[in-house]
Structures are given as structure tokens and as C-alpha cells.
Amino acid sequence: MSDGAVGSRMNVSSGTTSYTEALEYLFARVTGGWKLGLERTSELLSLLGDPHARVPAFHVAGTNGKGSVISTLEALLRGQGLRVGKYTSPHLIDFRERIAVNGVPISETEVVDFIERWTPDVERLGATFFEATTAMAFDHFVRADVDVAVIEVGLGGRLDSTNVITPVAAGVSSIGIDHVQYLGDTLELIAREKAGIFKRGIPAVIGEPNESLRAFLASLARDAGANPVRALADEWNVSDISVALDGTRFTLHTRAGARRLHTPLIGRHQAMNTATALAMLESAGAPYAAAALEPSAALARVRIAGRFQSVGNIIFDVAHNPAGCAVLCETLAAVKPTRPLTCLMTALRDKDWQAMMTTLAPLVDRFVLASPPSVPADRAWALAEALEFALGKGLNATAEPDFDRALAGARTGTGTTLITGSFHTVGDAMARLQVSPLVA
After folding, report:
1. Which of 264, 323, 368, 430 sits at 20 to 30 Å (Cα–Cα) from 286?
2. CA distances from 404 to 397, 421, 424 (A)
3. What residues does 174 pair with on adjacent strands?
4. Angle CA(355)–CA(376)–CA(332) in degrees, nearest 5?
5. Nearest-angstrom CA–CA distance, 420 and 318
């Protein structure tokens, strides 16, 4: 979701604002692109009493995989009896998904109260949607008396508003080409931005599988003074990976020996995401390292909506860039869903949707191209252009601008329906199919 400055102020008056009105005000701050930088977030948090400095936190960046690492950290920490705050983005259906404590989302009342109380300062500072939401999250975590928080970077890392924290450990999952207009158009430039979350004296864990890229990230972490710096694939190894619809099984080899583990998250990449979370806990030391010692029971409770989530004969996956689609295809090949496979796909205009569609094509029998209603008009892809591209590639494809009809058409017949291409696609479909993304 894009971020930016508000065009005009909505009247948010104390005591009379509904949750819907409060969200309208907050979302009005999503215009014109992201405003990167820490100044506005820092000043707003200062007015709140610096709640971010009062909550120990794990910080995770990455192009793909960071949500899975965050959800794994949450489950493992909760398995130790800790009260865990989780801040993620974007949401699928309801804004409150972004801010949760032990799986329970922030209440509508608290969202309204925060917006009513802090509107004048948000306006004065020119704070963006994501900056205001970040401040709301830390304020909620302090009020909820959490023991620890797991914080997902919104975009990049170095200038992302979450980077106001000094975490107990920082991790980067994997690097891919995305958000090039903000982060750069090479893997190295993007890696440099992600590595901006590494800080002096703080453990850094790198889950990137590519050897040269993880070496580059490790050098950036050392330059930042991070300690220790762990390029995970150089010291741990995963083997015997088995992927099925009930999750992923793998053997994790560490200096302490080998363990057979199972995560409910589906895909070969989830083995390294799980290992990244375990290494972050281990590196953070007491009291968090204990969560990595006997993780099996807690791992069984890992959940994350929209990441190869199978519901009946529907698969939801928020893959929204070529690298994400490549991982999705690898997982599809492993689990072999019932054919024919129909793909309901949309993508944002600023994504490389041509490469995404081309990547998916060998495993998809039929494409239904659509326009989800939650996509801002300035970010929606040109449906006619997408159909022309698909037909030009010889793909079996149709286009339907009405999302409800597109969803119904994609579910017609036997086989499996894959819903993918963006968070908007998955969220809008889940809302219509009454699939809740919230798992306590």
C-alpha cells in the first residue's frame, strides 16, 4: 500500500467519531507515494512518551519472507508464555490486523481514540498513514503491557518509520526486485536499504539464500557495527525438505546437531524462514533464546494468512513480484493441487506483472484477470493491456472488470482456484468468501 501526505483534513471531533470515519481520516493520508524518513515518526513518538523505547522488539526486513519470519517469531515467543505484540503490513481485510497482541487485534475503540487524540499533531507534522499507524502500534503495545514485540518493516528498512527502534535482534529474510522507485533497481541497492535496520552492538541475522548477496548483506551489517553477524546459510543447513498441504518438514543442522522440524507454513522457502526466526531468538539471548531450544510444539501454532493458504479447493497467495511468483510456482509444483488450475490474478501497475504472469503461466491452465475494488485508481493495472499481453503469449485468459463476477468465474468447474498477484486481490477475495485472516 502506498503512503503519503493528506490532501485535505477530515473533521475528527472527539467523542463522536466512528471507526469507519476514523479509518477514512487515516487512509486519507495515503496519497502521492511514500514519504521516507524517520523525523516525523520520531517526533510523534516523542509526544507519546517514546513508547517504542519501552518495548523490547525483534525487527525484520526483506522483500519476501519477512511476514513468515515475523509470524514464526510470534508463535515461538508466545510458546514461552510471553505476551507478544505484532505489527505487520499491509492488512488483507481490516486495518486492525496490522496491530495485535497475542493474536487479538487492536480494538476499534482504541483506533478511534488514538486518531481523535493525536489528529492535530499528525496534521502539524505532516505524518503519513504508515507513520501514524506505527506510532499507534507502539502506543497500543505499551498500553497492553506486552513483554516483547515483533515488528515488520513496511518498505525498505533504512528510512522506514519502524527503524526508530533499537531491537534485541534484527533480521533480513530475502532480497528481490521490488519498489524500485524507492529502493533502487538492483539487488545490491535494495539490499543496502534493507540492511539499514542493522545497528551497532545488535545481533544481525541474514536469511538470504544467495551466496554473494548474503555476503554483501553481512558486510553491510559489520560496517554498521552489528554483533554478532550471522549469514545463516553459511553456518546452518537445511536438508530433506518435504512440502505438503499440511506444511513443510525439514532437517535443521546446527552446531548443536540435527533436528527434524515441521512448520504449518507451506513451501521449501519456509524452512529457511523458520531457521531465520530461530537464529534471531538464539542471537537475542535471555530470555528469548529459550524459545529456540525446543520449538516443535510452538511451531505447530504458526499461522499467517494469504501465504499459500489452502481453504477447500482455493489457494490464497499474496505473491506480488516476480520472485514471489517463482516461489509460489515452486510450491505449486511440490504440492500438486488438483487440476485444472485457474488463476484469478490482478497486479498493481507499478509491479512487473508481465514477468509475474510469465512465471505463473507454465503451471496455470486458465487465467481470469480482474480489478479488485480496494486498489487505488492510480495504482490499478490496465486490464485491457494485461489481457492483450496474456493473449499475445498464447495463454488461456479472460478479463473481467467486475471483481465479483471474476471471482465467480474463476471458481467455476472442478479443479483448484489460485488467487494471487497482490494483497488487494487476496484480501478482497477473502472478504467476499468470508475467510478471516485473523488467527488468535
Report:
1. 264
2. 17, 16, 14
3. 64
4. 35
5. 5
C-alpha cell at 401: 472488470
Q: Which of 189, 157, 161, 149 is nearest to 173 (CA)?
A: 157
User: According to the model, what pLDDT value does residue 64 have?
Assistant: 87
Alpha-carbon distance of 389 to 382, in angstroms, equals 11
What is the three-class DSSP state of 220? Answer: helix
Q: How many whole angstroms separate alpha carbon 403 and alpha carbon 387? A: 15
Sorted by where each starts, the structural domains of the chain and their CATH numbers stand as: 19-299 (3.40.1190.10), 309-433 (3.90.190.20)
**Look-up of cell digits 497467495:** 317
pLDDT in tens, 151-210: 999 988 999 999 999 999 999 998 876 555 555 568 888 899 999 999 999 999 999 999
Look at residue 292 and tell me whether its pLDDT is greater than 90: yes
> What is the rounded CA–CA span in Å between residue 336 and residue 219?
39
69 vs 89: CA distance, rounded Å = 13
Give me 276's grid cell. 531465520
423/57 Cα distance (integer angstroms): 25
DSSP letter for each residue of 315-380: EEE---SHHHHHHHHHHHHHH-PPSSEEEEE--BTTS-HHHHHHHHGGG-SEEEEE--TTS-GGGB
Residue reference for cell 496474456: 390
Q: In the 8-state DSSP scheme, what is residue 43?
A: H
CA separation for the pair 112, 15 (Å, rounded) = 9
By CB atoms closer than 10 A (0-12, 13-18, 19+), residue 201 is exposed
- In the numeric block, which cell numbers belong to residue 123? 496534521
Residue 312, Cβ neighbours under 10 Å: how many? 10
pLDDT tens profile 244-262: 999 999 999 999 899 999 9
Q: What is the mean pLDDT of residues 127-138?
A: 95
Whether 328 has a pLDDT exceeding 50, the answer reads yes
Predicted TM-score (pTM) of the model is 0.91
Alpha-carbon distances, residue 150 vs 88, 94, 117, 170, 198 (angstroms): 8, 19, 25, 10, 15
